[in-house]
Amino acid sequence: MSISVLWATLLLLLVVASTVAVSDSAGVNISEGNSTRIYELPAGSRPHDVAPAPDGKVWYTGQRRGVLGILEPQSGAVREVSLGQGSAPHGVIAGPDGAAWITDGGLNAIVRFDPASEAVTVFPLPPQRPQTNLNTAAFDGDGLLWFTGQNGIYGRLDPASGVMQVWDAPRGRGPYGITATPDGEIYYASLAGSYIARIDRSTGDAILIESPRAGQGARRVWSDSTGHIWVAEWNTGVLSRFDPRDSRWAGWTLPGAGPRAYAVYVDERDIIWVSDFGANAVLSFDPQTETFTSYPGSAPGAMVRQILGRAGEVWLPESGLDRLVLIRTD
Predict the structure, then answer these.
(1) Residue 89 placed within a domain
(2) Measured in Å, how far apart are the chain's first and last C-alpha atoms?
(3) pLDDT in tens, 27-40
(4) pTM for this entry
């Protein structure tokens, strides 16, 4: 397995925040010190999402190959677990039970992988909900799994009973990223609907939260440690923040020409990470200093569609290059 190490050194564009309006870039600085390691995956994997596993390994969804990939970071060794005929896995997260939970658009099902027994359990969506284009999932504070489907649905699975419920999303097509806050609340983003929503967990209702930027194309969302909701706005190239306590928005335009914000993740230090298809890069953003740091893709066409991490590590799936990238932050 080929492993190479790069150093990300370019710090881009100081920006100034506003509570509603998007801020403009103003200056360039240089950063040093964070190491990056690249892991080559089997050709044609097209890793869509990645999730650090509790045992130190790293899971990824091999969307084109219908597999859950398992990377051993120390050696670079990769194994693949088939998820079944027709599988096209999109999202993967580590559940509170230590298992990998996968949203599989090809199977139109939630899939659980037990790392101890390597058993694969499939939870199909109801037959009256075909071809939902399942996207991502998050566990709430009660251990229930919530998920999105781009073809206009969101849903809930009780892992203990296997009971699943599915709701029609406001404005139809679009539900994409989803996140849980520290107090267990669930928010999702609608790309086609250009909104974020909080799900009332008692009723299942989606409560729309409108952005001050019409048509912004909210693609993914993530919560920081204080419950702020960070949003990657695909159409505007803005990294935005919603404060549920006072319903105020702030926004920062990604540096460079033609930014396209895709994935967003908040690490344990409350540093925000966002991928930019326009720049073929991933950016970190420090809300305290309002500075972006750029980590260029390992080659042209990296296409980082999701970001996830654990303490001291940020993991990126370069879906266009069949690679995983580790950025060490400790």
Answers:
(1) no
(2) 25
(3) 222 234 458 999 99
(4) 0.90
